[in-house]
Design brief:
The complex is a heterodimer of chains A (113) and B (244). In chain A, 87% of the residues lie in helices and 0% in strands. Chain A contains four helices and no strands. The longest helix of chain B has 17 residues, at 223-239. Classes of the chains: A mainly alpha (113), B alpha+beta (244). Chains A and B meet through helix 1 and helix 3 of A and helix 10 of B. Bound molecules: iron/sulfur cluster (2 copies) and FE2/S2 (inorganic) cluster.
């Protein structure tokens, strides 16, 4: 792993952390506001269906969470297990993207259904 | 006069063990005095290193009762209660040559790798510039550079850092403390190369900011903050595209 890629991952992890900090807050406030007075599944779907801004927000949320988590796990694995090198980095990148895709698929389900 | 029980690690790169010695206990004695007594009076072949005896040269560091310290400025009574034994080992995280003497080459090689050499801006060949630079003592950069400049290269911080133990490539606190003083040196022309050299997994981005280095540095320097400064600088330089 060269120094530049290591630095970029660090920057990516910090930037995703900043975004996640705000996103988690938005997410929680949204839930609290939406749920006031009770809410059914049908109502939720009614609101999320076709809401492009919400879809974009949750897709970005999932992407940030996936990358942030994978980079963190990569660092732990490097230090504790000695898993270093390009192969491992690619594997972690893959894990990050797959995790993100699960989240994006869920958001897509709410958007398109 | 009582005696002081001392366990000294004897051996070489292949391995070794503690051996016990009894040294006359004095009211005022440093750990280095104790080691010297053993070598002069008991074991002429005991290998250890020192030069200045006054905390300037950085060559006498060893691990004393579980902590890396400069031995010439460490009084026995500060590390061992009356009647307690002294355990003296070579510095951790460095190859042992023999007994208490470690090979400092990896430590200084990393200074070089971290860009520890001053590169005059107006004299790229390393010559002394014809004109003096004016650096206001109160400027922020001057104060940052001043904060780290008194490093004596003793390796105490390096021996106290877990990341060095986990990742043999990690540059370590002293090398990056040096790099940070030069990043803040307005006369220096190698800022970019140096920042690239200290970034990534072998550099500042692996530091956990646990501050053992800062706590143990006998000169009261703060390598941990220096590394945080490097991270901050690299973060903004990366975001604004000042570094690729
Ligand atoms: S602050 Fe960083 S360099 Fe200092 S001991 Fe901790 S991990 Fe090592
Ligand atoms: S920073 Fe402090 S502990 Fe580390 S080498 Fe320099 S003087 Fe020694
Ligand atoms: S002998 Fe020089 S610093 Fe201890």
């Amino acid at each position: 792993m060269n120094a530049r890629a290591g630095r970029h991952m660090w920057v990516a992890q910090r930037v995703t952390a900043m975004f996640l900090g705000v996103a988690v807050l938005v997410h929680l406030v949204t839930i609290m506001v939406a749920v006031r007075g009770g809410l059914s599944a049908a109502e939720i779907l009614g609101r999320t269906h076709g809401a492009t801004a919400w879809f974009a927000f949750y897709a970005a949320f999932a992407l940030a969470a996936g990358l942030h988590g994978a980079i963190g796990l990569r660092n732990i694995a490097m230090e504790w297990l000695g898993w270093r090198g390009r192969g491992f980095d690619m594997a972690w990148l893959g894990i990050g993207v797959v995790t993100a895709l699960f989240g994006i698929r869920a958001a897509w389900g709410l958007y398109a259904s | 006069m009582g005696t002081l029980k001392v366990r000294v690690w004897r051996g070489d790169a292949a391995g070794g063990e503690f051996r016990e010695y009894a040294v006359p206990a004095r009211e005022n004695q440093t750990v280095l005095d104790v080691v010297t007594q053993i070598q002069r009076e008991q074991e002429p072949d005991l290998a250890y290193r020192f030069a200045c005896r006054v905390g300037m040269c950085g060559s006498c560091a060893m691990e004393v009762n579980g902590r890396a310290r400069w031995t010439c400025r460490t009084h026995v009574k500060r590390v061992a209660a009356p009647g307690e034994a002294l355990d003296i080992k070579p510095l951790a995280n460095l190859p042992v040559i023999r007994d208490l003497a470690t090979d400092m080459a990896p430590f200084f090689d990393k200074w070089a790798r971290a860009g520890g050499t001053f590169q005059p801006k107006d004299a790229p060949d390393g010559a002394v510039p014809a004109e003096f630079s004016v650096v206001p003592p109160e400027s922020k950069q001057r104060r940052e550079a001043d904060a780290g400049i008194e490093c004596i290269g003793c390796g105490v911080c390096y021996a106290s850092c877990d990341i060095v133990a986990w990742n043999p490539d990690y540059l370590g606190p002293a090398a990056m403390n040096r790099a940070w003083t030069l990043v803040n040196d307005v006369r220096d022309g190698a800022r970019r190369e140096r920042l690239e050299a200290v970034s990534g997994d072998a550099g500042c981005h692996s530091c956990h900011s646990t501050q053992s280095c800062t706590e143990r540095c006998p000169k009261n320097l703060d390598p941990s903050s220096a590394i945080a400064g490097l991270k901050r600088t690299l973060f903004w330089d990366s975001l604004w595209g000042r570094l690729r």
